[in-house]
Design a protein that fits this description.
By secondary structure, this protein is mostly beta strands. It is about 0% helix and about 60% strand. Strands 3, 4, 5, 6, 7, 8, 9, 10 and 11 form a nine-stranded antiparallel beta sheet that branches. It has a two-stranded antiparallel sheet with strand order 1-2.
Length: about 180
């Protein structure tokens, strides 16, 4: 994904402020299946010093994700598919002195996408992309006393949603020698 805020080429048309350009993988004539694991344990991260507003030394962040992707031909040389899914387990903890609260956030909703490319005739390309980047963060709020650095009982639970579903359709082709 790239963000262009000025001086971008004419292929992106006219936009008053800028554009966001997303490029995705596509299937090919070769079948491809892959898996990726990403792990970011809090114990290996550097610690930020405490500030007047936040007890940063108590912050924790543990991320784990497993990604599976696959692509290949449905009809050789004419119709291709590619897809991926990312299973995530993200947990963050943050203490705020001014709020008197300790926040524990969890996000385990997977994100995924599918792309289909068709070449029905020579010099004609149809693309359809669907992706869902919707996340749902569950926040547990605990009482926190910054003066004594103690965590109390649960005060509330909240659910935040962000992202969502996107559809992209595109045709590229030559209709005539002059068009």
């Amino acid at each position: 994904i790239e963000v262009k805020t000025g001086g971008y080429p004419a292929e992106f048309g006219r936009a008053p402020g800028g554009i966001i350009n997303a490029v995705s993988k596509a299937g090919t004539n070769d079948l491809m299946i892959a898996g990726h694991l990403n792990w970011e344990p809090d114990d290996l991260a550097s610690k930020a010093p405490d500030t007047y507003l936040d007890r940063n030394s108590r912050d924790r962040r543990n991320n784990f994700s497993a990604i599976v992707e696959a692509g290949g031909p449905i009809i050789r040389d004419r119709l291709f598919a590619y897809g991926l899914i990312e299973f995530r387990n993200i947990r963050t903890e943050h203490s705020s002195i001014t709020d008197g609260a300790r926040y524990i956030d969890r996000d385990t909703k997977p994100i995924w996408g599918v792309k289909v490319d068709a070449y029905p005739l020579d010099n004609h390309h149809l693309e359809f992309t669907y992706f869902d980047t919707g996340t749902e963060k569950h926040r547990t709020t605990l009482a926190y006393d910054g003066a004594t650095d103690t965590v109390g009982g649960e005060t509330s639970e909240t659910r935040y949603r962000a992202g969502g579903v996107s559809y992209v359709g595109r045709y590229t082709g030559t209709l005539a020698d002059w068009f």
